[in-house]
């Protein structure tokens, strides 16, 4: 609470200083320094969606916000999305953990992420359904983030029931070199730029090397390489682009550790009971985007992509519970080819003076997957527990109709159908399975206004996530085991209502209430080290968002999200959903072009939440304040300092409650909290030069 108060005082002080600065500017405008940088008016961190939004909870994050936001890891740039928390519980090379609208989305389930039109979420993945690894991205290439919440948008299908994000890439980049170093063994080199070719085509190339040890007793020793080449011509509405991306990463990992091991002195707070945990990841991709107006009323958009991805994770969560001699480390191996694309045609027309747009689209995706689970000791293979060859194909078709019925009345109606087919060859048990499923998803929104720069929204719709295509090994009460395949597609139904207002000059406010029901909740299993299909669930919540720009160089923003999550079946005493946060909050100050200065101060908070379904074990959550300050040394050279965890919070970034066993403990193990601490205060300094 004390840290929160300090943060609020700091924001208030900056706001007061902003007011004083405004008065000074009114009295006597400051003359620009003859040798200083050009004065550029700050752009808003989010685009004004009034008059174009389908819901009060969707939005677009500008490149401006991304450039100024202090982010310890690349996935945390997504925290610019109101109500989204991004954290880590095991190694920096691994996919992050995402939380939104009362959901612990694990590594990405129910939050669909796209980069340059390519879906990032992985189906039937070794470490969790919807696995979303963003380590192949370089922040300098972000063009912006368009995000949605809820299943109200016909153009997105699998994994988008809770939310989605589309990250765009820039077509051009001023040639630049960036060097970074920090206090936790972090070092980074980035170089990139673009050149204009003949005929209006632009070639962009960029690459990075990043190393990070972190605060861990067993250093992460993350080594990450990224490279991008992009050809582009024209605009996003009338042009094309072709992008090749390559990524390779290796790291050690300190997973969540039993708190009793720290209390007994077996390891320190940043220690690990199995220092051989870690991972290797590789990704290659090629994506093509094409857009063309066929006439003044018709717009064609096409996207095609291909991805080759490999991942091995070594993890030991239960330690000596299953194998008292060798330990419980297992290797999760995932190798896959992905190919797919999307085609959409939008037609604008008017009937009886009513402006309308009809969009018809199709999309398809094919995954060829080899996924296995092996028992290992210090990364050495002992036995193979599961080995599957899976092919998974999906096809989706949708139609969306938008109409401006009156100056104060708009509607968006959509219908989507998805069909999935999975073939699973269990190579260990010599069992072959086949499954297919289809799901219809009606969607609709009504928008009233604007009146006095204020709009009201009501939305309802159905969405879904796909489940792991492999059959699970289930043990019956009599001790017998069998392979049981979960439902391939799990439906979700949601409604929400909200308001968005720009009534006060330079102030944007939004409020949304929502409810979302899932037919089956995906929950985390420590034994399997991944998510598993579980009970039906319901969440209700309220989201509040504000953004204020009192000065051209200053922005204040705040996002508060409250939720109530419960299972909808079984004993009321066990209705609490594990790891479902009841509160996610963020607030910040963004400063740009204040003379030579720029920077940001951000506060992020994940509230208390249950760790067990009877609410007998709870997590206090965590809070953190990050600071960024930049100074323009010359017109071409910028110096920047980022301080993470400014007030030295000793909270845990992630915690769980499950059974594990330490040496000498009973063979049945001990149920207890396992936690992954928040990184301590650290400093990262970046020197960037442009040509």
TrEMBL record:
<keyword id="KW-0998">Cell outer membrane</keyword>
<keyword id="KW-0812">Transmembrane</keyword>
<keyword id="KW-0798">TonB box</keyword>
<dbReference type="InterPro" id="IPR037066">
    <property type="entry name" value="Plug_dom_sf"/>
</dbReference>
<keyword id="KW-0472">Membrane</keyword>
<dbReference type="InterPro" id="IPR000531">
    <property type="entry name" value="Beta-barrel_TonB"/>
</dbReference>
<protein>
    <submittedName>
        <fullName>TonB-dependent receptor</fullName>
    </submittedName>
</protein>
<feature type="domain" description="TonB-dependent receptor-like beta-barrel">
    <location>
        <begin position="198"/>
        <end position="646"/>
    </location>
</feature>
<feature type="signal peptide">
    <location>
        <begin position="1"/>
        <end position="23"/>
    </location>
</feature>
<feature type="domain" description="TonB-dependent receptor plug">
    <location>
        <begin position="54"/>
        <end position="163"/>
    </location>
</feature>
<keyword id="KW-1134">Transmembrane beta strand</keyword>
<dbReference type="InterPro" id="IPR039426">
    <property type="entry name" value="TonB-dep_rcpt-like"/>
</dbReference>
<keyword id="KW-0675">Receptor</keyword>
<keyword id="KW-0813">Transport</keyword>
<dbReference type="InterPro" id="IPR012910">
    <property type="entry name" value="Plug_dom"/>
</dbReference>
<dbReference type="Pfam" id="PF07715">
    <property type="entry name" value="Plug"/>
</dbReference>
<dbReference type="InterPro" id="IPR036942">
    <property type="entry name" value="Beta-barrel_TonB_sf"/>
</dbReference>
<keyword id="KW-0732">Signal</keyword>
<comment type="similarity">
    <text>Belongs to the TonB-dependent receptor family.</text>
</comment>
<dbReference type="Pfam" id="PF00593">
    <property type="entry name" value="TonB_dep_Rec_b-barrel"/>
</dbReference>
